[in-house]
Specification:
Strand order of the largest sheet: 3-2-1-4-5-8-6-7
Radius of gyration: 18 Å
Number of strands: 8
Largest sheet: 8 strands, mixed
Structural class: alpha/beta
Length: about 210
């Protein structure tokens, strides 16, 4: 392990706080993001937001480009725990993630996939992440579909490995009424890029090459 590991998270916290700053989660006894990542062995935990209203360490709008200008150095991990759906300029957001990561660093997304109507600008199919990170040559790509009753309660979450084509039979109105998310992990390699525009794999591999 690197002697100094760093991570960008969106959820804000106050320095030295063991429990979450959010009153709802604090009452449930949930620890803060800073505490969590320090337990994982990270020496530095940075929060990022477009506004300073929650006391973020870095103020930067992901709709713009050039996150490297506000970072001292690239980081080991970028955690998108529910951010990208609120950023209108998705290509710039993904480009900033790429720029923020050091070679060998990883990105983790937990993004809404279904039944998050009006929560943000977008809901993301697993194929969006699969085709983008494959086209841009990220390594160790892992995608799971998450199913739960409601994101904000303590109901069990189930994780199912995703493979392209798995959801074709339920893609048009036959999912149930549960909440779905895409859980994604990908690693930036020496060959990785940010600006390769993917074609949807279903058409590229299944139909156009038929």
């Amino acid at each position: 392990l690197d002697p100094k590991r760093s991570v960008i998270v969106r959820e804000m916290d106050f320095a030295g706080t063991l429990l979450s700053h959010n009153p709802y989660y604090r009452r449930m006894g949930c620890i803060s993001d800073v505490c969590l990542f320090r337990l994982f062995g990270f020496d530095e935990v940075l929060s990022l937001d477009a506004s300073d209203y929650e006391g973020a360490d870095i103020i930067f709008d992901l709709n713009g480009a050039g996150i490297g200008q506000v970072l001292d150095e690239p980081v080991d991990l970028v955690v998108d725990g529910g951010t990208i759906e609120h950023v209108f300029h998705v290509p710039n957001c993904l480009g900033n993630i790429f720029e923020a990561l050091k070679e060998g660093g990883q990105v983790m997304h937990m993004s809404p996939a279904n039944n998050h109507l009006d929560h943000g600008f977008y809901q993301f199919s697993p194929t969006f992440f699969h085709d983008y990170y494959r086209a841009n040559r990220f390594a160790d790509l892992s995608i799971q579909l998450v199913r739960t009753e409601q994101v904000e309660n303590a109901a069990p979450w189930t994780f199912t490995d995703y493979r392209p084509g798995d959801l074709r039979e339920v893609s048009k109105g036959t999912l149930d009424d549960k909440v779905y998310l895409s859980f994604v992990i990908a690693r930036k390699s020496a060959d990785s890029t940010a600006n390769a525009v993917p074609q949807q794999g279903y058409y590229e591999q299944t139909m156009w090459n038929a």
